[in-house]
């Protein structure tokens, strides 16, 4: 079941949805790119259909709706704590297949990675629903086909994509059919079947790979800005910060702040120790986590091939190229 809509129908549909849901979608931000004359596509709450960017791939992922860059978890005094309030109204998030696959990674890390679910992640997750943006063509730097993230069959309530001079949607949850204005038709979601960029993901990484000289290159090339992990839909790491309201440190708040293995200070420990200082060691840790360590625990690769890390790196370090270099080194050792 689905709907075919013209621009006016689509606008009415979005208007009806916005009455019951907060809508979180990719939006073109004019002049907010690296330079003042560059635009960028990132996520924001929208009210009008014209705000939703369906053609361009977003430069940042959707994950800030679930993992804010800085989130107050709770407030404390000497005698009590209080969980911080959050807007828990239902949200519809518009995202592509690679990001919806990324959601599975986030859920595994925060909901299925221990005995207990992460309370703060889960209370938001329960109120978030997903709209799949169909991909009618591959984008620059994408390698989602190689990572098996180019297509997904469930996890979304309906799809949306531009079609000819209008829009089309596949309805997966019948409860959303009443919001649609348009002509009812059978609709199939578009997905990419081939990327220009292709990677060969190794099935197994031997311990000898950890000592390869290939990682030393990134001691110099990588500047440790962390942009690659900030745009990534599957990076989940954070650090904790306490902000004190009094000089004695007995009243304040605790915040969860986005961080990663690529950013200075992430491996700092009590006593002044700091591990993986060379950028090459950080790069090795990130790459092997994406295509080996995560898979050892959950059975599939962490990377979804969205290609954002390749596009955002100021030093033009290509993650897809790194995977292929890693695979070539493993095959060379096996000869």
TrEMBL record:
InterPro entries in alphabetical order: 4Fe4S_Fe-S-bd (IPR017896), 4Fe4S_Fe_S_CS (IPR017900), Helical_ferredxn (IPR009051), Sulphite_reductase_A (IPR014259)
Keywords: Iron, Iron-sulfur, Metal-binding
A molecular function GO annotation: metal ion binding
PROSITE patterns cross-referenced by the UniProt entry: 4FE4S_FER_1 (PS00198), 4FE4S_FER_2 (PS51379)
Source organism, top-level taxon: Bacteria
Domain 4Fe-4S ferredoxin-type, first and last residues per copy: 212-243, 294-322
Pfam families assigned: Fer4_22 (PF17179)
NCBIfam families in the record: sulfite_red_A
PANTHER family: ANAEROBIC SULFITE REDUCTASE SUBUNIT A (PTHR40447)
Name of the protein this chain belongs to: Anaerobic sulfite reductase subunit AsrA
